[in-house]
Design goal:
single chain; 1 helix; about 190 residues; about 70% strand; mainly beta; 8-stranded antiparallel β-barrel
Length: about 190
């Protein structure tokens, strides 16, 4: 709630001169395996919306949803087939500072903020029902660095690395990160 109030104050400030929006999205997919019974797959979607209240400063809201699945089975017929699935959902609000103007061909940026993370891990053996074996929920700090490559006045390709921790009340504290490549539209 505090972030929304801060965003509204910054956007309505007389110093808010830029006043343009950027919408973005990315999809990350990975598949790696040895055979049909031993593989890893992951798929993550991220959507973002940014409001530039100054030429090189923005509030960015991100929503990420995704997961991964690891399947393992030994060579013997009696070996169990084990599936471990991770699901993640994160909503974050970050302050983004660009180091170049809107029209520049390359816009490096950094961002810092916080989000709400939900991370759950499930295990399934053969055809048994899946069981939850781990879960984390809570507020997390987030940060990132990246580069926006302008293709046209309204369209750009964004490359970056985002990082966040496990909820601060978790022990041990773990840092997760994701490499992102996506597109954005400025209007």
């Amino acid at each position: 709630m505090k972030w929304i109030l801060l965003l509204a104050l910054a956007a309505s400030s007389p110093l808010a001169q830029a006043g343009f929006f950027e919408l973005g999205g990315s999809v990350n997919y990975r598949s790696s395996g040895y055979d049909k019974n031993n593989y890893i797959q992951s798929l993550t979607y991220t959507a973002s919306g940014s409001y530039y209240f100054w030429e090189m400063c923005a509030w960015e809201i991100n929503y990420t949803k995704g997961g991964s699945k690891q399947v393992t089975k030994g060579a013997a017929t009696i070996d169990p087939k084990t599936t471990v699935q991770d699901d993640i959902t994160m909503t974050s609000l970050d302050l983004v500072v660009s180091f170049a103007g809107r029209q520049d061909p390359f816009r490096p940026y950094i961002k810092l903020g916080s989000g709400y993370l939900t991370k759950e891990r499930y295990r399934k053996i053969n055809n048994d029902p899946r069981e939850k074996i781990s879960a984390q929920n809570g507020l997390v700090p987030s940060a990132g660095v990246g580069l926006s490559l302008n293709i046209s006045k309204e369209f750009s390709i964004k490359l970056g690395i985002d990082a966040w921790t496990s909820p601060l009340d978790e022990d041990p504290l773990v840092i997760d990160y994701a490499g992102r490549a996506g597109m954005s539209w400025i209007f």
